[in-house]
Design goal:
Order of helices and strands: HHEHEEEEEEEHEEE
Radius of gyration: 15 Å
CATH architecture: 3-Layer(aba) Sandwich
Helix content: 10-25%
Number of domains: 1
Shape: globular
Number of helices: 4
Number of strands: 11
Mean pLDDT: 93
Distance between the termini: 28 Å
CATH topology: Rossmann fold
Strand order of the largest sheet: 3-2-1-6-9-10-11
Strand content: 15-25%
Low-confidence stretches: none
């Protein structure tokens, strides 16, 4: 299926979920993450949810990371195409961007090459680890700046599509994708 079609389909499906279902599924996704072999690392990149877009609530994942004393890094949009990454600390202050994304005002910047695990937002994904985001290319650009061995974990309310038909060379594949019921692994040993 084409990315444009998948964006429409999964935006509508996500919008139809009740707040209770989104919260319950977000907690299930966080619990599923505990089964992944990713907890021995230090630096974890976590997107903060866009409430208006009814995204997965990542607060339970944040609690897990903080409980495990991990360094949590959060993104901020810079210009029209780039992300900058900040270490989350007790003194980090946030503001809502023009896209209603909670972003740090300032802080300690972290290079993408320092990251070990990146939790990736998405609308849809396929059985090959390809993902569909909002179409702006922020995460593909960001992930291409990370080390080759960075672990990319997608988070989805919905199960995999069979195939995304218009994948591009610049699209970065996931290593895992976690849904409330399933952990998908894409060629990771």
């Amino acid at each position: 299926m084409l990315k444009k079609t998948l964006r429409t389909k999964y935006t509508l499906q996500r919008d139809s979920l009740t707040a209770a279902k989104r919260n319950s599924d977000s907690i299930s996704i966080a619990n599923q993450l505990l089964s992944l072999p990713i907890w021995q690392f230090d630096y974890y990149h976590l997107f903060l949810s866009i409430t208006k877009k009814k995204e997965i609530n990542t607060s339970a994942i944040l609690s897990i990371l903080q409980g495990k004393d991990k360094h949590v890094v959060v993104p901020k949009v810079i210009g029209t195409e780039d992300l900058q990454h900040f270490l989350l600390t007790d003194s980090t202050k946030f503001t809502l961007s023009s896209w209603d994304v909670p972003e740090p005002l300032n802080g300690i910047t972290i290079s993408p090459t320092k990251l070990d695990v990146v939790f990736v937002p998405l609308l849809a994904f396929d059985t090959n680890g390809n993902r569909v985001g909002y179409g702006k290319g922020f995460y593909d650009g960001f992930l291409s700046q990370c080390r080759n061995d960075v672990i990319k974990v997608g988070l989805s309310f919905f199960e995999a599509e069979e195939k995304i038909t218009d994948v591009h060379d610049a699209d970065v594949k996931l290593d895992y994708c976690v849904t409330p019921n399933t952990v998908y692994s894409f060629g990771v040993s």
